[in-house]
Amino acid sequence: MPMPPDSVDLHTHTRHSDGLDTPAELVVKAARQGVRRLAVTDHDTLTALPEARASGAACGVEVLTGIELSVQHGDFNDIHLLGYFFDSEDAALNACLARLKEGRTQRGLEILHRVNRRLSDLGRAPLDSRRVQQYASGVLTRPHLAQALVDQSYCKGHQEAFRDFLIPCNAPKPLLSLEEGLRLIADAGGVCSLAHPGTLSTDPNVLDPLLAAAKSLGLAGLEVYHRAHHPDTTPFFEAVALRHHLVPTGGSDYHGRPTGPTLGEIAPGYPVPGAALHDLQRFAASRKSD
Ligand SMILES: [Zn+2]
Ligand SMILES: [Zn+2]
Question: What pLDDT was estimated at residue 47?
C-alpha cells in the first residue's frame, strides 16, 4: 500500500542505541518507504542526530529531534518517555545524558565483575574484559555479556546466559525519575509522549493514577498507535488519551530487525496517523505561548 503524502514516523532507533541501522541507513530507508518526517528517538542519547539530519537533507526527509528516555515512577521501573521538539544542544540535557551514560558504563563493568566472581566460584576462567568490550560499540550491556558467555561455551544461548549468570549477577540501572525526565525535556523546550503504554498495563486502575501524575508534571502525549497494542487495545488507549487530555501519538518503534515493523507503519497496511505530529506540534506551540 503506498504511504500517504503526509507520512510520518515518531519512534525509530539506530545503532546509537539498540537499533541495527546507522542513522544514514535509517533515513535512506525512510525515504524509500515514503516517510517524509521522521523522529529519531534513540534510548538516552542524541548522538545519531547530526548524521541523521545530514542524510535527511540529502534525501528529502525532515528529521525531527527526538529521544526515548527510560524513567521510573513508583513501582514502574522502565517507563519510556519519547521527547520531541527540544533543543538538542541544551547544556543541562546533554550533561544529564553524559551522567547517565557514565552510570550505565559502570553498571556494565559491575555486572562483568559479578559474572567473573560467579565463574571463579564454579572453577571456570573469567571472561577477558578487553575481549568482552569488543562486543559493544558503546556501553557494555547484558546482551553483550550473554554473547560472550555463549562464545566461551559457558552457556548454550542467551536465555541460559540470563538465567544462570546475568539475572543473578544483575546490578541496578541508573534511572531518572518521571518528574526529572519530563522536566529535562520541558526545560530544553520540548514535549513528551509516554511510549507504548500497553507494555506497562492495560488496567485502568493502574494506568489512570500514573497518567494523572504524569499529566500534572507536564506530559503532552500518549503513544496510542504502537504495535505492542495494535489493533486489540488501540480503542482502549484512544479512550485513555482522551480521558487524560493527552495527544494520541504513534510510531513504528523500528529497530532495523528483518522481522520487525516497516518504517511509517504500526502494522502492515496501518500507517502512523499524520495527525499525531500536527497535534503534538500544536500542543508544543500552545505551551510556548503560555
Ligand atoms: Zn520503548
Ligand atoms: Zn523505542
Answer: 95
